[in-house]
TrEMBL record, chains A, B:
PROSITE patterns: HTH_TETR_2 (PS50977). Keywords: DNA-binding, Transcription, Transcription regulation. This is TetR/AcrR family transcriptional regulator. Pfam families: TetR_C_11, TetR_N. Residues 26-45 bind DNA. The keyword Hydrolase does not apply.
Protein backbone atom coordinates (compact mmCIF):
# COMPACT_ATOMS: atom_id res chain seq x y z
CA UNK A 1 0.00 0.00 0.00
CA UNK A 2 1.25 3.48 -0.81
CA UNK A 3 2.53 5.30 2.29
CA UNK A 4 0.20 8.24 1.65
CA UNK A 5 -2.83 5.94 1.52
CA UNK A 6 -1.68 4.22 4.68
CA UNK A 7 -1.42 7.57 6.46
CA UNK A 8 -4.97 8.42 5.35
CA UNK A 9 -6.19 5.19 6.90
CA UNK A 10 -4.28 5.83 10.15
CA UNK A 11 -5.56 9.39 10.24
CA UNK A 12 -9.17 8.25 9.78
CA UNK A 13 -8.66 5.60 12.48
CA UNK A 14 -7.30 8.05 15.05
CA UNK A 15 -9.88 10.72 14.34
CA UNK A 16 -12.70 8.21 14.62
CA UNK A 17 -11.45 6.86 17.95
CA UNK A 18 -11.18 10.44 19.23
CA UNK A 19 -14.72 11.24 18.07
CA UNK A 20 -16.53 8.03 18.97
CA UNK A 21 -14.31 6.18 21.43
CA UNK A 22 -12.92 2.70 20.93
CA UNK A 23 -16.35 1.08 21.09
CA UNK A 24 -17.55 3.34 18.30
CA UNK A 25 -14.53 2.64 16.10
CA UNK A 26 -15.21 0.23 13.23
CA UNK A 27 -13.20 -0.85 10.22
CA UNK A 28 -16.30 0.04 8.19
CA UNK A 29 -16.17 3.57 9.55
CA UNK A 30 -12.47 3.85 8.71
CA UNK A 31 -13.15 2.56 5.17
CA UNK A 32 -15.86 5.16 4.69
CA UNK A 33 -13.81 8.03 6.10
CA UNK A 34 -10.60 7.16 4.24
CA UNK A 35 -12.21 6.08 0.98
CA UNK A 36 -10.33 2.76 1.06
CA UNK A 37 -12.17 -0.53 0.55
CA UNK A 38 -12.95 -2.39 3.78
CA UNK A 39 -11.53 -5.63 2.36
CA UNK A 40 -8.23 -3.90 1.60
CA UNK A 41 -7.99 -2.60 5.15
CA UNK A 42 -8.72 -6.05 6.58
CA UNK A 43 -6.03 -7.56 4.36
CA UNK A 44 -3.42 -5.33 6.05
CA UNK A 45 -4.83 -5.19 9.57
CA UNK A 46 -6.97 -8.15 10.65
CA UNK A 47 -8.95 -6.26 13.31
CA UNK A 48 -9.72 -2.77 14.54
CA UNK A 49 -7.36 -3.44 17.46
CA UNK A 50 -4.49 -4.20 15.03
CA UNK A 51 -5.38 -1.14 12.99
CA UNK A 52 -5.43 1.23 15.96
CA UNK A 53 -2.26 -0.31 17.39
CA UNK A 54 -0.47 0.29 14.07
CA UNK A 55 -1.89 3.81 13.78
CA UNK A 56 -0.58 4.72 17.24
CA UNK A 57 2.97 3.75 16.29
CA UNK A 58 3.06 4.86 12.66
CA UNK A 59 0.65 7.77 12.17
CA UNK A 60 2.24 11.08 11.25
CA UNK A 61 -0.23 12.97 13.47
CA UNK A 62 1.45 11.40 16.52
CA UNK A 63 4.85 11.55 14.82
CA UNK A 64 7.94 12.21 16.88
CA UNK A 65 11.54 13.07 16.13
CA UNK A 66 13.96 13.00 19.07
CA UNK A 67 15.39 16.48 19.71
CA UNK A 68 19.09 17.25 19.24
CA UNK A 69 19.77 20.61 20.87
CA UNK A 70 23.39 19.95 21.80
CA UNK A 71 22.85 19.29 25.51
CA UNK A 72 21.03 16.66 27.57
CA UNK A 73 19.18 19.38 29.45
CA UNK A 74 18.05 21.05 26.25
CA UNK A 75 17.01 17.73 24.71
CA UNK A 76 14.98 16.71 27.78
CA UNK A 77 13.25 20.10 27.98
CA UNK A 78 12.35 19.72 24.29
CA UNK A 79 11.08 16.18 24.97
CA UNK A 80 8.89 17.35 27.86
CA UNK A 81 7.55 20.22 25.73
CA UNK A 82 6.73 17.80 22.90
CA UNK A 83 4.89 15.50 25.30
CA UNK A 84 3.08 18.46 26.83
CA UNK A 85 1.99 19.58 23.36
CA UNK A 86 0.77 16.08 22.50
CA UNK A 87 -1.34 15.91 25.68
CA UNK A 88 -2.76 19.43 25.62
CA UNK A 89 -3.14 20.63 22.00
CA UNK A 90 -6.11 19.52 19.90
CA UNK A 91 -6.50 17.44 17.84
CA UNK A 92 -3.42 15.48 19.06
CA UNK A 93 -4.70 15.66 22.66
CA UNK A 94 -8.07 14.03 21.94
CA UNK A 95 -6.43 11.42 19.72
CA UNK A 96 -3.74 10.55 22.25
CA UNK A 97 -6.16 10.35 25.18
CA UNK A 98 -8.67 8.20 23.28
CA UNK A 99 -6.03 5.88 21.80
CA UNK A 100 -3.99 5.51 25.02
CA UNK A 101 -7.15 5.04 27.06
CA UNK A 102 -8.25 2.29 24.68
CA UNK A 103 -4.78 0.70 24.87
CA UNK A 104 -5.04 0.51 28.67
CA UNK A 105 -8.47 -1.12 28.53
CA UNK A 106 -7.77 -3.37 25.53
CA UNK A 107 -4.47 -5.27 25.75
CA UNK A 108 -5.11 -6.71 22.27
CA UNK A 109 -4.23 -3.26 20.93
CA UNK A 110 -0.66 -3.80 22.10
CA UNK A 111 -0.20 -0.21 23.24
CA UNK A 112 3.14 -1.25 24.73
CA UNK A 113 4.50 -1.26 21.21
CA UNK A 114 3.87 2.49 21.04
CA UNK A 115 5.94 3.13 24.16
CA UNK A 116 8.69 0.73 23.08
CA UNK A 117 8.87 2.49 19.71
CA UNK A 118 9.08 5.94 21.33
CA UNK A 119 11.74 4.78 23.75
CA UNK A 120 13.81 3.29 20.92
CA UNK A 121 13.85 6.76 19.31
CA UNK A 122 14.50 8.58 22.60
CA UNK A 123 17.59 6.45 23.27
CA UNK A 124 19.63 8.62 20.91
CA UNK A 125 19.29 11.55 23.33
CA UNK A 126 20.88 9.53 26.14
CA UNK A 127 23.58 7.95 24.00
CA UNK A 128 24.74 11.40 22.94
CA UNK A 129 24.63 12.58 26.57
CA UNK A 130 26.84 9.68 27.69
CA UNK A 131 29.28 10.41 24.84
CA UNK A 132 29.39 14.08 25.84
CA UNK A 133 30.05 13.06 29.46
CA UNK A 134 26.80 14.62 30.72
CA UNK A 135 25.46 11.30 32.00
CA UNK A 136 27.20 8.29 33.56
CA UNK A 137 26.93 4.98 31.77
CA UNK A 138 24.99 3.54 34.72
CA UNK A 139 22.13 6.05 34.40
CA UNK A 140 18.78 4.53 33.47
CA UNK A 141 17.29 6.30 30.43
CA UNK A 142 13.90 4.59 30.73
CA UNK A 143 13.56 5.78 34.33
CA UNK A 144 14.36 9.34 33.25
CA UNK A 145 11.82 9.19 30.42
CA UNK A 146 9.14 7.65 32.62
CA UNK A 147 9.59 10.25 35.38
CA UNK A 148 9.29 13.13 32.89
CA UNK A 149 6.55 11.71 30.65
CA UNK A 150 4.66 10.59 33.74
CA UNK A 151 4.81 14.04 35.33
CA UNK A 152 3.38 15.58 32.15
CA UNK A 153 0.59 12.98 32.11
CA UNK A 154 -0.37 13.46 35.78
CA UNK A 155 -0.22 17.25 35.65
CA UNK A 156 -1.96 17.78 32.30
CA UNK A 157 -4.36 14.84 32.08
CA UNK A 158 -5.19 13.84 35.65
CA UNK A 159 -4.93 17.22 37.33
CA UNK A 160 -6.00 19.22 34.26
CA UNK A 161 -3.38 21.84 35.10
CA UNK A 162 -1.04 23.75 32.75
CA UNK A 163 2.29 22.24 31.74
CA UNK A 164 3.65 25.53 30.40
CA UNK A 165 5.52 28.45 31.96
CA UNK A 166 8.64 26.77 33.21
CA UNK A 167 7.14 23.34 33.91
CA UNK A 168 9.49 21.58 31.47
CA UNK A 169 12.61 23.28 32.84
CA UNK A 170 11.62 22.59 36.44
CA UNK A 171 10.78 18.94 35.82
CA UNK A 172 14.05 18.37 33.94
CA UNK A 173 16.05 20.18 36.60
CA UNK A 174 14.46 18.05 39.35
CA UNK A 175 15.47 14.84 37.58
CA UNK A 176 18.94 15.94 36.44
CA UNK A 177 20.02 17.85 39.55
CA UNK A 178 17.77 16.37 42.26
CA UNK A 179 15.34 18.34 44.37
CA UNK A 180 17.50 18.24 47.48
CA UNK A 181 20.64 19.34 45.64
CA UNK A 182 19.01 22.16 43.73
CA UNK A 183 16.66 23.47 46.40
CA UNK A 184 18.23 22.80 49.79
CA UNK A 185 20.47 25.84 49.68
CA UNK A 186 17.77 28.36 48.87
CA UNK B 1 -26.39 7.97 55.85
CA UNK B 2 -24.40 5.60 58.05
CA UNK B 3 -20.72 5.52 57.05
CA UNK B 4 -20.82 1.74 56.63
CA UNK B 5 -23.79 1.95 54.26
CA UNK B 6 -22.02 4.71 52.32
CA UNK B 7 -18.93 2.52 51.95
CA UNK B 8 -21.10 -0.33 50.64
CA UNK B 9 -22.50 2.00 47.98
CA UNK B 10 -19.00 3.23 47.02
CA UNK B 11 -17.71 -0.32 46.91
CA UNK B 12 -20.56 -1.43 44.65
CA UNK B 13 -19.96 1.61 42.42
CA UNK B 14 -16.23 0.94 42.00
CA UNK B 15 -16.66 -2.78 41.45
CA UNK B 16 -19.34 -2.17 38.83
CA UNK B 17 -17.22 0.35 36.93
CA UNK B 18 -14.32 -2.13 37.00
CA UNK B 19 -16.54 -4.95 35.70
CA UNK B 20 -18.65 -3.09 33.15
CA UNK B 21 -16.84 0.15 32.40
CA UNK B 22 -18.31 3.62 32.89
CA UNK B 23 -20.91 3.14 30.16
CA UNK B 24 -22.14 -0.01 31.94
CA UNK B 25 -22.33 1.71 35.33
CA UNK B 26 -25.87 2.67 36.41
CA UNK B 27 -27.32 3.92 39.67
CA UNK B 28 -29.85 1.07 39.33
CA UNK B 29 -26.98 -1.43 39.23
CA UNK B 30 -25.39 0.15 42.30
CA UNK B 31 -28.75 0.03 44.11
CA UNK B 32 -29.13 -3.66 43.30
CA UNK B 33 -25.55 -4.57 44.27
CA UNK B 34 -25.51 -2.56 47.50
CA UNK B 35 -29.08 -3.29 48.58
CA UNK B 36 -29.80 0.43 48.98
CA UNK B 37 -32.89 1.99 47.42
CA UNK B 38 -32.23 3.83 44.15
CA UNK B 39 -34.13 6.89 45.38
CA UNK B 40 -31.92 7.08 48.47
CA UNK B 41 -28.77 6.97 46.34
CA UNK B 42 -30.08 9.72 44.05
CA UNK B 43 -30.89 11.86 47.08
CA UNK B 44 -27.20 11.83 48.06
CA UNK B 45 -25.58 11.78 44.60
CA UNK B 46 -27.61 13.30 41.77
CA UNK B 47 -25.92 11.31 38.97
CA UNK B 48 -23.68 8.33 38.37
CA UNK B 49 -20.86 10.80 37.65
CA UNK B 50 -21.31 12.40 41.08
CA UNK B 51 -21.47 8.97 42.69
CA UNK B 52 -18.30 7.69 41.03
CA UNK B 53 -16.48 10.97 41.71
CA UNK B 54 -17.35 10.69 45.42
CA UNK B 55 -16.42 6.99 45.50
CA UNK B 56 -12.98 7.76 44.04
CA UNK B 57 -12.20 10.22 46.82
CA UNK B 58 -13.92 8.55 49.76
CA UNK B 59 -13.98 4.78 49.22
CA UNK B 60 -11.95 2.74 51.68
CA UNK B 61 -10.82 0.39 48.87
CA UNK B 62 -8.77 3.27 47.40
CA UNK B 63 -7.97 4.56 50.88
CA UNK B 64 -4.62 6.14 51.55
CA UNK B 65 -2.70 7.21 54.63
CA UNK B 66 0.47 9.22 54.05
CA UNK B 67 3.52 7.30 55.31
CA UNK B 68 5.62 8.56 58.22
CA UNK B 69 8.85 6.57 58.24
CA UNK B 70 11.05 9.23 59.79
CA UNK B 71 12.81 10.35 56.60
CA UNK B 72 11.77 11.98 53.34
CA UNK B 73 13.45 9.20 51.37
CA UNK B 74 11.65 6.51 53.33
CA UNK B 75 8.31 8.29 53.02
CA UNK B 76 8.68 8.75 49.25
CA UNK B 77 9.69 5.10 48.74
CA UNK B 78 6.61 4.08 50.74
CA UNK B 79 4.47 6.44 48.62
CA UNK B 80 5.79 4.96 45.37
CA UNK B 81 5.22 1.44 46.68
CA UNK B 82 1.65 2.31 47.67
CA UNK B 83 1.00 3.76 44.20
CA UNK B 84 2.59 0.72 42.59
CA UNK B 85 0.35 -1.56 44.64
CA UNK B 86 -2.72 0.44 43.67
CA UNK B 87 -1.89 0.18 39.98
CA UNK B 88 -0.81 -3.47 39.87
CA UNK B 89 -2.74 -5.48 42.53
CA UNK B 90 -6.28 -6.65 41.86
CA UNK B 91 -8.94 -5.61 42.63
CA UNK B 92 -7.55 -2.10 43.30
CA UNK B 93 -5.80 -2.11 39.91
CA UNK B 94 -8.96 -2.75 37.88
CA UNK B 95 -10.93 -0.27 39.95
CA UNK B 96 -8.29 2.44 39.67
CA UNK B 97 -7.81 2.00 35.93
CA UNK B 98 -11.54 1.97 35.19
CA UNK B 99 -12.32 4.92 37.46
CA UNK B 100 -9.34 7.07 36.38
CA UNK B 101 -9.97 6.20 32.72
CA UNK B 102 -13.58 7.32 33.12
CA UNK B 103 -12.44 10.49 34.88
CA UNK B 104 -10.22 11.38 31.90
CA UNK B 105 -13.04 10.84 29.41
CA UNK B 106 -15.82 12.36 31.54
CA UNK B 107 -14.92 15.73 33.10
CA UNK B 108 -18.31 15.76 34.89
CA UNK B 109 -16.83 13.13 37.22
CA UNK B 110 -14.44 15.75 38.54
CA UNK B 111 -11.51 13.34 38.83
CA UNK B 112 -9.30 16.32 39.71
CA UNK B 113 -10.88 16.23 43.15
CA UNK B 114 -9.32 12.81 43.69
CA UNK B 115 -5.83 14.12 42.92
CA UNK B 116 -6.35 17.29 44.93
CA UNK B 117 -7.50 15.18 47.90
CA UNK B 118 -4.47 12.88 47.64
CA UNK B 119 -2.09 15.78 47.36
CA UNK B 120 -3.62 17.45 50.42
CA UNK B 121 -2.79 14.31 52.39
CA UNK B 122 0.71 13.92 50.84
CA UNK B 123 1.65 17.45 51.89
CA UNK B 124 2.36 16.24 55.43
CA UNK B 125 5.33 14.22 54.09
CA UNK B 126 6.93 17.37 52.64
CA UNK B 127 6.13 19.62 55.60
CA UNK B 128 7.92 17.17 57.89
CA UNK B 129 10.87 16.99 55.45
CA UNK B 130 11.23 20.79 55.42
CA UNK B 131 11.06 20.87 59.23
CA UNK B 132 13.75 18.17 59.41
CA UNK B 133 15.91 20.17 56.99
CA UNK B 134 15.83 17.46 54.33
CA UNK B 135 14.17 19.71 51.78
CA UNK B 136 14.48 23.43 51.10
CA UNK B 137 11.40 25.57 51.49
CA UNK B 138 11.49 26.37 47.76
CA UNK B 139 11.11 22.73 46.68
CA UNK B 140 7.88 21.97 44.82
CA UNK B 141 6.05 19.04 46.47
CA UNK B 142 3.52 18.69 43.65
CA UNK B 143 6.31 18.36 41.09
CA UNK B 144 7.96 15.64 43.21
CA UNK B 145 4.66 13.75 43.58
CA UNK B 146 3.83 14.08 39.88
CA UNK B 147 7.26 12.82 38.76
CA UNK B 148 7.03 9.76 41.02
CA UNK B 149 3.33 8.94 40.54
CA UNK B 150 3.72 9.53 36.82
CA UNK B 151 6.69 7.17 36.54
CA UNK B 152 4.67 4.43 38.27
CA UNK B 153 1.76 5.04 35.90
CA UNK B 154 3.88 4.98 32.72
CA UNK B 155 5.91 1.94 33.77
CA UNK B 156 3.07 -0.19 35.18
CA UNK B 157 0.07 0.86 33.13
CA UNK B 158 1.40 2.03 29.77
CA UNK B 159 4.47 -0.19 29.49
CA UNK B 160 2.97 -3.08 31.49
CA UNK B 161 6.32 -3.61 33.17
CA UNK B 162 7.07 -4.44 36.82
CA UNK B 163 7.39 -1.66 39.39
CA UNK B 164 9.02 -3.91 41.97
CA UNK B 165 12.62 -4.92 42.72
CA UNK B 166 14.21 -1.59 43.46
CA UNK B 167 12.01 0.54 41.21
CA UNK B 168 10.72 2.67 44.10
CA UNK B 169 14.22 3.27 45.53
CA UNK B 170 15.66 4.12 42.10
CA UNK B 171 12.85 6.50 41.19
CA UNK B 172 13.08 8.29 44.54
CA UNK B 173 16.86 8.49 44.32
CA UNK B 174 16.65 9.99 40.83
CA UNK B 175 14.32 12.75 42.03
CA UNK B 176 16.03 13.44 45.36
CA UNK B 177 19.66 13.18 44.24
CA UNK B 178 19.39 13.79 40.49
CA UNK B 179 20.55 11.37 37.83
CA UNK B 180 23.67 13.32 36.96
CA UNK B 181 24.78 13.71 40.57
CA UNK B 182 24.19 10.11 41.59
CA UNK B 183 25.38 8.39 38.42
CA UNK B 184 28.04 10.52 36.82
CA UNK B 185 30.80 9.24 39.07
CA UNK B 186 30.17 5.53 38.51
Amino acid sequence: MAPRKQQEIFDATLRLVAERGYDGLTVEGVAERSGVNKTTIYRWWPSKAALLGAALVEADVLGFEPPDTGSLRGDLVALVEAMAGLLTRPPARDIALAALGAAVRHPELDGRRFFADRFARERAVFERAVRRGELGGAADPMLIVDLLAGAVWVRAVFRGQPVTGGFAEEAVSAVLDGVTASHAGR
